[in-house]
Fold this sequence. Notes:
The complex is a heterotrimer.
Chain A: H1 7-38, H2 46-54, H3 56-84, H4 91-114
Helix pairs in contact in A: 1-3, 3-4
Chain B: H1 8-12, H2 40-71, H3 73-83, H4 86-113, E1 117-118, E2 121-122, H5 125-149
Antiparallel strand pairs in B: 1-2
Helix pairs in contact in B: 2-3, 2-4, 4-5
Chain C: E1 4-11, E2 21-28, H1 35-46, E3 65-68, E4 71-74, E5 88-91, E6 98-100, E7 103-104, H2 107-115, H3 137-144, H4 154-158, H5 160-164, H6 171-181, H7 189-196, H8 210-214, H9 221-241
Parallel strand pairs in C: 1-5
Antiparallel strand pairs in C: 1-2, 3-4, 3-5, 6-7
Amino acid sequence: MRTRPLTPLLWTLFSAGGTLAALLYPVHLFLVGLAFPLGIFEPPSPETLARLVAHPFTRLYLFVFIALPLVHWAHRFRYTLYDGLQLKHLFALVAVLCYGAALVGAAAAGYVLWAL
Amino acid sequence: MSAHGGGPEARGGAAPGAYTPYHPRWYRRRVSVWWWLKRPTYATFVLRELTSVFVAGFAVVTLLQVRALSAGPETYARFQQRLESPVVLAFHAVALAFLLFHSLTWFNLAPKAMVVRVGGRRVPDAAVLAANYAAWIVATASVAAVLLAAR
Amino acid sequence: MADTVALEVTRYRPERETEPSFETYEVPLRRDWVVLDALNYVKDRLDGSLSFRWSCRMGVCGSCGMTVNGTPRLTCAAFLADNLPGPIRIEPLEYFPVVRDLVVEITDFMKKLREVKPWIVRTDEPAVPAGEYLQTPAQLDAYKQLSMCINCMLCYSACPIYGLEPGFLGPAAIALARRYTLDSRDQGGAERLEILSQHDGMWQCTFVGECSKVCPKNVDPAGAIQQYKLEGAAHWFKTLLSPKGAR
Lengths: 116, 151, 247
């Protein structure tokens, strides 16, 4: 029945990751990457952060926060390479490299958050 | 008319170089690798697609931050210092611009994909747009509240 | 406003050349003239060998699509005055093989339209005495916008994916599929979804959105394709959970 086995799933993950990144990434990046280092706002202390991250809900949040947008990148970047650079003949290789990298990132995130 | 209808021949044309009165030699231009520079909207599209690189970049930064946090206070302090270096700050400033571009284009396109029909009429695009931006404001405020209130 | 404007028109005569070239014609600049009027002036008064397609000259037949100053336009809807200063560059529709001058080969497009089963598909056909299919205005509204397509191929000429991926079904075909699937009289949704889920189907689309921008009838094929992707994804998950064939 499923003529194109994985594409609908990948597209769904891409959409979910893109929505998550659109909603949450700007504020996180502004605070963590600019406001806190520049001293515009007082960053939370490492102890408070450690306490926050120890909570299972935060760990789940962070895992989804990292893993889903990585899949979003993999899917989008793969098509960008394919169409933009016209790498037709490398279709399978590009797919494997992109989704593979995303999988590695997600696995790393899972490991770090699990082992906390 | 065309006995060659259907299949790749319909697109590819007659035997190249062979012109007969009954089947002319079609001209096919190869699409250039620089196709995306030919129109401003194409270039904007490629920029939009490249925002995904900065999305992935920030995902990795977050991963590194969590790893530094789990490794202990000295490692985390070193990580914080790296965040304050001008190169990293510049990267984050550029990344923020790209992420905002992603958010804006993503939400602006949402009404096209999400068609909600209520009582036989399509919900106007403006309403779907407003709902998306409202969700964005709520998400931003919630995260800011958590991260700024924690001491 | 000046008296005349220059037109830079693609000429391609396969019987004596292997590459297209440009020829410049000076045509009167009238405030109410469209590019099609100018081309007909060229053919009538300046160069009778110029070949191009046109028919209704009022934006309903879809024959006169060409690339005007780099954008796919209906030449019967592109005013000379809006494309100043000259010279106005007129080329055949991009991403299609050129047969002669401004005439492109459209067999591929016609084939793809047929592929999506653009007719009412019924699994049960009521007998004629049972009467007509009734449709409320709300049901008509669900697909009306998509039925406005005049098959002018401007969307194919705007779609870089169609240019890069010759097998891609394309915006008009997918919008047409959606027009029939959304029709309350139709029962062929599952069949069309299967066709669109294949390799060169809707998943090739990366939502550039240029197709909807150039559409002269506001069909919004880009939106139709994204809605179809949502439906395809939902269907995928449904078959995952109930493999015995959820409809």
